[in-house]
Amino acid sequence: MFDLDGTLAATGRDLANSVNHVRSLLKLEPLEDSLVYGHVGRGVEHLLRSSLPEKYQNRFSEVMELFLRHYEEHLLDTTVLYPHVKEILDHFSVKKRAVVSNKLHRLTVAILRGLGIEVCFDAVLGGDSASNKKPDPSALNHVLDAFKVEPSKALIVGDGDTDIEAGKRAGVYTCGVTYGLGKREELVAAGPDFLIDDLRELTDYIC
Questions:
Q1: Residues annotated as part of the active site
Q2: pLDDT grade for 59, boundaries at 50, 70 and 90
Q3: Is the peptide bond before 53 cis (omega within 30 degrees of 0)?
Q4: Longest dimension (CA), the chain
Q5: Which fold is adopted by the domain 80-204?
Q6: pTM for this one?
């Protein structure tokens, strides 16, 4: 099981551009990309609420609509796969492969399709595909149940502490990638079973 943002695809710049598009419509100064990146990984609601002053929270449905309208049109402007993603997906083609993202399902699919890797996955779950988002384990449990896989024979790969916590709560192995959008110190503190700096290192742990 793979996270999307910061794990398979470098989506940060397009997310930041859409956040700052909303801020510009609200006559707010743009945020540094790195500040936006720090809020990626917990779903669009968290991203937007964390990127706007408190006084805009009562207009949240309007803000969400503005963001989604822009992001859906620009989600592949700069987004690319991280190095070796396709190589690794091909390497593990005999295994069940799934994406478990907190991004809305339709946006997740649009990115995977646009980057040419949707066909590599046996299942794609977004933040609205299960009862709760990561770090809740419900989406991971859904994948395990669907493919009748024991937790001890499954792995979640992600760049954020939410991925690692969800994996631990589901009872699966956890791998943290250090090249993504998540903060390394939070990733390390989450205590993944192993950390990798390059996706090719998965072959050192998974046969």
A1: 3
A2: confident
A3: no
A4: 53
A5: Rossmann fold (3.40.50)
A6: 0.95
